[in-house]
Amino acid sequence: MISRIDLRGDALPEGGALRDLLPRAEFDVEAALEKVRPICEDVHHRGTAALIEYAQKFDGVTLEQVRVPAEALKTALDELDPAVRAALEESIRRARIVHREQCRTEHTTQVVPGGTVTEKWVPVERVGLYAPGGRSVYPSSVVMNVVPAQEAGVESIALASPPQKEFGGLPHPTILAACALLGVDEVYAAGGAQAVAMFAYGTSGPDGCPPANMVTGPGNIWVAAAKRYFTGKIGIDTEAGPTEIAVLADSTADPVHVAADLISQAEHDPLAAAVLVTDSAELADAVEKELEPQVAATKHVEDRIKPALAGKQSAIVLVDSLEDGLKVVDAYGAEHLEIQTADAAAWAARVRNAGAIFVGPWAPVSLGDYCAGSNHVLPTGGCACHSSGLSVQSFLRGIHIVDYTRDALAAVTHHVVTLAEAEDLPAHGAALKARFGWKVPTQ
User: Fold this and answer.
1) Alpha-carbon distance 273 to 335, whole Å?
2) Tally of CB atoms within 10 A around 130
3) In this structure, is the dihedral angle defined by the CA atoms of residues 16, 20, 21 and 23, taken in order, positive or negative?
4) C-alpha distances in angstroms, 334 versus 248, 272, 352, 365, 443?
5) pLDDT (tens digit per residue) in 201-248
6) E strand intervals along 219-359
7) pTM
8) Taking Cα atoms as reference points, which of 261, 249, 351, 373 lies closest to residue 309?
9) Which residues, at least 6 apart from 284, have a Cβ–Cβ distance to it below 8 Å?
10) Residue 340: what are its φ and ψ, rounded to 5°?
11) 239: closest CA among 269, 219, 212?
12) Cβ distance 194 to 50 under 8 Å?
């Protein structure tokens, strides 16, 4: 059901050589880019008419308008299962607690007497958020995108999610209910690359969508490709690829827990990655044995879980020691990394590369997906080696404000002129000399 990679016996290679030995899903955004380019440009030129046409082509629905009516949001919330509403409210509450603590405050540094640099934090003016609607419905992704944007102070928030044939061309009602709970009333029935293009270019008309400064949220390869296409025109969070879990475990780990956690990510998508890194062959055997009955007892077996576990992106990786295991998980840079070892907190503290780290047997990835308070929009495909998950900081821009008096400028002018001339940019120095009668002030 799942393959093995045996890295025992020899010294582990460094850097890219080690990464090349580890399992990873094929996710060719560059190839998809050429297919989304004409879609994006069609939305640019035809706006809402193009969105309606693509809804018919890709989603099998006929739309009269793309923007979701206010009454549909209210109805979705009114008809939401009370237990689901309570769970979403608790998810929102916990997310707000964590994300509110991420907010930054303005800070002024006195560099020299009379010379200060202030850093102020300004939220992005308008964001477009994407909530997937393919194999599963993700109201949790609505929470994870909206809460940090709201806590950052973003004034204009719009959300897009694919239209659903089953629900008359509206996005899934649980998505709409989550928007209503969060106070997001600008919602569009649009999916895929065309939704990203709608946010990037904007559309006109009575239900048109003003252009956004930034687009965030997970999606399929077409969404990722559209984000790449618009990089530079709008801000993006990340080009999200298939979801990943890596578990670093030793002989103290419970194989029932490990198997369940691997399966929990495998049920997302046939390209989902489930990786166990362990120095215990006995644990590897026990987990492999435990996968069979747990897989048989759940849903989505043939179309998602079995292909995901059997795919080249999933494996049990055997290492000589936890020290080697730490090198492996750092090279892998998992979206989600569980540490199920003795003294798990100490090992977790040494991890450098992961989107989010889950410590010990009582912090499974599923907790982070919904109700830990952390954010589940995380870097995939090894991007955790250089990128962070979604946070309040994602929606803020730091701006430096430079305020110097005449004397403070005079005291440093000779250095500025010297550096300007060293770079063969004499006009830079002249901009200061002009303020002092074209002479460098005497020190």
Assistant:
1) 10
2) 30
3) positive
4) 11, 12, 11, 12, 55
5) 999 988 899 999 999 998 889 999 999 999 999 999 988 889 999 999
6) 235-236, 244-249, 273-278, 315-318, 334-340, 354-359
7) 0.93
8) 261
9) 4, 276, 278, 316, 318
10) -120, 80
11) 219
12) yes
Give 54's contacts (C-beta < 8 A, 6+ positions apart).
Answer: 39, 43, 190, 192, 194
Token duo for residue 137? 């419905």
Strands ordered across the beta sheet of 214-216: 187-189, 156-161, 126-130, 214-216, 235-236
CA-to-CA dists, residue 58 to 35, 165, 191, angstroms: 14, 11, 9
Encoding tokens for residue 427? 């006009």
Pairing of strands 273-278, 214-216: unpaired
Q: What CA–CA distance (Å, rounded) separates 276 from 265? A: 12
107-112 vs 115-123, strand pairing mode: antiparallel
Q: Which amino acid is at 84?
A: V
Angle subtended by helix axes 29-46 and 192-201, to nearest 10: 50
Per-residue pLDDT tens digits for 12-62: 998 889 999 999 988 788 889 999 999 999 999 999 999 999 999 999 999
The answer for residues whose C-beta is within 8 angstroms of residue 136's C-beta and 6 or more apart is 268
Which residue shows structure tokens 């919330």? Answer: 77
Contact, 29 vs 225, CB < 8 A?
yes
Q: CA-based angle 124:139:123, to the nearest 5?
A: 10
Three-class DSSP category at 111: strand
Instruction: Work out the mean pLDDT of the chain and round it to a whole number.
Output: 95
Q: Please give the positions annotated as active site.
A: 335-336
Neighbours of 377 (CB within 10 A): 22
State how far Cα 82 lies from the chain centre.
29
Q: What angle do CA 219, 222, 223 make, to 5 degrees?
A: 40
The DSSP code sequence of 281-306 is HHHHHHHHHHHHHHHHTSSSIIIIIH
| DSSP three-state, residue 342 | coil
Radius of gyration of the chain (CA): 25
